[in-house]
Design goal:
8% strand; alpha/beta; two-stranded antiparallel sheet; 8-stranded parallel barrel; 22 helices; 628 residues
Length: 628
C-alpha cells in the first residue's frame, strides 16, 4: 500500500536528520499538524504528526493522492491490521511528497519570490548557511554561480516526526465483539505503523509511562543503531522533570534502546493536555537537567551498551548524542535564546503561535479569526478531557458552543464513533468514553438517584454534574479542522471544532505568514500585541498559582493527611521557585533592567499571593473541623 519512490529520494530524506533551525513545531491535537511536514519540512523545519486518528490519516492520504494524481487504494477497516497499515501508507506518502518538493526546490533559481530564496532567508542569522547565502547575494559572475551551487547542496529538510499519547492505548475488538490480541491495541498498532514506514525520523512518546508500549519498541530493528551508529528511527520522550526522564530512559536502555531526545514541556504553560507538577517550576527543572545532563548520558549509555552486548548487537559510541529540548509558553527571542544558551537546550518548541500560521497548520477560517482576536481570558484550563487530565481550552470554539447547546437541550454528551478514549467501566463491561452520551446519561441518572435518596448533598450533586457534563468529544473536535480546511466530507455531520491552544497565544496579534513567524522567533520582527507580557517563567508561575487556588478550594472539606502534605509540598516548591527566579534575574542579560525590575515585582507579589492562599485554606480547614 506504500508509495514508490527512487533511491535518490531516500538520500534527500536522510539528510533531514540534522536540523538547520533552532526550533521545532510540536504536535497539536489530532489534526492541526497532521500534514505540517508537507507544509514546512522543505524549509528545514521539523514538526510532529499525531498518528492516533487513523481514519483522519486515511482521509488525508486519499485527499493528497487525488491532488497529486496518484492511484489511491483504500485500506479497509475489515483488515485486522488496518490501523498500522493506514499509518504506514500515510507516512510513506508524506515522505514521497516532501522528496518531490525538495527536488523541485533544488532546481529553482535564487529569486526574491522563489521558495529556494525563502529557505535561506528564514535560517538563523548566525548559521553558516545563511552567512554563505548573504555572501552569495553580494557576489557577482562565476563566483555567484559557484556559491549558489554550493548552497543547493546544503539544503536539508526538517524531520517528519510522529507522536503517540502513551495512555491512549485501548484494546480493540473484532467484528464479533471479541477482543483482539494486545498488539492490535491503539498505541501498539500506531507504533507498528510508524516502525513499518520508510521514515528516518523520531517518534515522540507523550502523556506518561506505558510499559506495554515501550517494551514493544524492541521488536523493530530500526530503533537500534547499525554498525555505523546510525539509528533509522529515534525515540523522543516528552517529560515533565528529570526524574521521569531518568526512569523512562532507563526502561529503554535496559532493552538496548537509546533515547535520542528528552523533550521537556511546561506542566501548565502549554497547549492540549496539561500535566501539572506539584508546583515544581520550569526553571528549576531545567537547572536540574543542566547539572545532571552528563550523569544522565553516562548512566543510560552504560545500561544500553550492556543490553546491546548481551543481544549481540552493535554497541553505541561514547559520543552518541542525547538532545535535551524545551517547549511550552515561549514567546520572545530573548526567552528562546536564554533557554538555549543558559540552560544548554539543543532546541526549543514553538507550538500554539503556529496555529495563527495557515501555511503551517490546519485551522478552519472561523476558528482562525477567533484566535487572532482572542483575549487572555478566552483561554482556560478545563475538565473537558475524558482522560481525566486538565485540558487547555478555548471558550469560543464551536466545540465548546456545541457542548453547552447539547446540555441546554437536555442531551449532554456526544455520539461516540472514533472510540479512542474509551476507558470507563463504571456502568458497562466494555469500556466507554466519559464524554459519550451513553456514559453521561447513565452517570447523571445515578447522581440524581443518589441525591433523591439523600446519599449526596445538593452541593455535591451540582459539583459532580458539572464535572460530568464538562467532558467533550476530543476525537472528533481535535481532528475536524483539516477536513473543513480541505473541503472534505465530514463524518456524521460532526463539524464542531475543539481547539486547545496554550494561554501564550493570547499575546500574538494577528494571522501571520510562515516567514513572519520564523522571523519573530529569530528576533527579526515582533508579532506580539502591544499589551504587557510577563516572562514565560512568570506566566507559568501565574498558572500554577491559579491552579493551586482552585485545588485548595476543591479540597476545603476535611482533607486527609496525604492531601495536606501534597499542598504543603506544592506551596514550598512554588516559593522555592520564586526565590530561584529572583537569583536568576542578573543572568538574564538579554532582558532590559526595566523588564527585570518588573519581573522582580511580579515574583514578590506571587510569593505573597501563594502564602496567603495556603494560610487562608489552612484557617478554613480548621473552622470546618471545629464545626463538625
Amino acid at each position: 500500500m506504500g508509495v514508490m519512490y527512487s533511491a535518490g529520494t531516500l538520500i534527500l530524506i536522510r539528510m533531514g536528520t540534522i536540523s538547520v533551525h533552532t526550533f521545532h513545531i510540536p504536535v497539536m491535537g489530532l489534526g492541526f499538524t497532521v500534514d505540517t511536514p508537507v507544509k514546512v519540512a522543505r524549509f528545514g523545519i521539523s514538526s510532529v504528526i499525531s498518528i492516533m486518528q487513523v481514519n483522519l490519516l486515511e482521509q488525508m492520504r486519499a485527499h493528497y493522492c487525488n491532488e497529486l494524481g496518484i492511484d489511491y487504494q483504500e485500506i479497509p477497516v475489515d483488515d485486522i491490521d488496518y490501523r498500522a497499515k493506514r499509518i504506514s501508507a500515510y507516512l510513506d506518502l508524506v515522505q514521497f511528497m516532501i522528496a518531490r518538493q525538495l527536488e523541485h526546490l533544488q532546481q529553482e533559481d535564487f529569486e526574491q519570490n522563489s521558495e529556494l530564496d525563502k529557505y535561506f532567508r528564514m535560517l538563523p542569522a548566525n548559521s553558516s548557511e545563511q552567512v554563505l547565502y548573504h555572501a552569495m547575494l553580494k557576489a557577482e559572475g562565476a563566483n555567484k554561480i559557484a556559491l549558489q551551487e554550493q548552497l543547493r547542496t546544503l539544503i536539508k529538510p526538517g524531520s517528519i516526526d510522529v507522536n503517540i499519547m502513551s495512555k491512549v492505548d485501548n484494546l480493540n475488538y473484532d467484528k464479533n465483539g471479541d477482543p483482539l490480541p494486545a498488539e492490535y491495541s491503539d498505541a501498539l498498532s500506531a507504533l507498528r505503523g510508524y516502525a513499518h514506514s520508510k521514515l528516518n525520523s523520531s517518534i515522540v512518546f507523550s502523556a506518561g509511562f506505558n510499559p506495554r508500549l515501550f517494551a514493544y519498541v524492541e521488536h523493530f530493528k530500526d530503533f537500534y543503531a547499525d554498525e555505523n551508529g546510525h539509528i533509522q528511527k529515534k525515540i523522543i520522550l516528552k517529560v515533565s522533570d528529570y526524574r521521569s526522564a531518568l526512569v523512562q530512559g532507563k526502561f529503554f536502555a535496559k532493552k538496548g534502546i537509546w533515547v535520542s531526545e528528552f523533550r521537556i514541556e511546561s506542566g501548565l504553560n502549554c497547549g492540549g493536555h496539561a500535566f501539572p507538577t506539584e508546583g515544581y517550576l520550569l526553571g528549576p527543572i531545567l537547572e536540574e537537567f543542566k547539572e545532571k545532563r552528563n550523569e544522565l548520558h553516562a548512566e543510560l549509555l552504560g545500561m544500553c551498551n550492556k543490553a546491546l552486548e548481551e543481544k549481540g548487537l552493535p554497541m553505541l559510541s561514547a559520543s552518541v548524542p542525547v538532545k535535551v529540548t524545551v517547549q511550552g509558553g515561549i514567546g520572545t527571542r530573548n526567552e528562546d535564546v536564554f533557554l538555549r544558551e543558559f540552560y544548554g537546550m539543543d532546541a526549543t518548541g514553538w507550538g500554539s503561535p503556529f496555529l495563527l500560521v495557515p501555511e503551517a497548520t490546519n485551522v478552519d477560517n472561523t476558528t482562525l479569526h477567533q484566535l487572532a482576536n482572542a483575549a487572555p481570558d478566552d483561554y482556560f484550563l478545563s475538565e473537558a478531557s475524558p482522560l481525566g487530565v486538565p485540558f487547555n481550552n478555548f471558550r469560543h470554539s464551536s466545540g465548546e458552543v456545541q457542548r453547552k447547546a447539547r446540555l441546554a437541550k437536555g442531551r449532554p454528551g456526544s455520539p461516540c464513533y472514533k472510540k479512542l478514549l474509551e476507558f470507563n467501566t463504571e456502568f458497562t463491561e466494555k469500556p466507554i468514553c466519559t464524554a459519550s452520551r451513553q456514559y453521561q446519561h447513565l452517570k447523571l441518572k445515578a447522581l440524581l438517584d443518589a441525591k433523591l435518596q439523600f446519599s449526596i448533598t445538593e452541593d455535591e450533586y451540582n459539583k459532580q454534574y458539572h464535572e460530568v457534563t464538562s467532558k467533550d468529544c476530543l476525537c472528533d473536535g481535535l481532528s475536524t479542522t483539516p477536513i473543513l480546511k480541505n473541503g472534505l466530507p465530514v463524518d456524521h455531520k460532526l463539524d464542531a471544532v475543539t481547539i486547545c491552544p496554550g494561554p501564550n497565544l493570547a499575546y500574538f496579534n494577528r494571522i501571520s505568514t510562515l516567514e513572519e513567524m520564523v522571523n519573530h522567533i529569530y528576533g527579526r520582527m515582533n508579532l506580539l500585541k502591544s499589551m504587557y507580557r510577563s516572562h514565560t517563567f512568570v506566566n507559568e508561575l501565574k498558572l500554577y498559582s491559579n491552579y493551586l487556588k482552585k485545588e485548595l478550594k476543591k479540597n476545603i472539606h476535611f482533607p486527609g493527611a496525604k492531601q495536606a502534605k501534597m499542598f504543603a509540598n506544592f506551596k514550598n516548591n512554588l516559593l522555592e521557585g520564586v526565590e530561584y527566579y529572583k537569583q536568576l534575574l542578573p543572568k538574564m542579560t538579554h532582558e532590559t533592567e526595566e523588564f527585570k525590575a518588573k519581573m522582580r515585582e511580579e515574583l514578590d507579589a506571587f510569593k505573597r499571593t501563594v502564602s496567603n492562599y495556603c494560610t487562608t485554606w489552612e484557617s478554613q480547614v480548621q473552622v470546618e473541623l471545629v464545626n463538625v
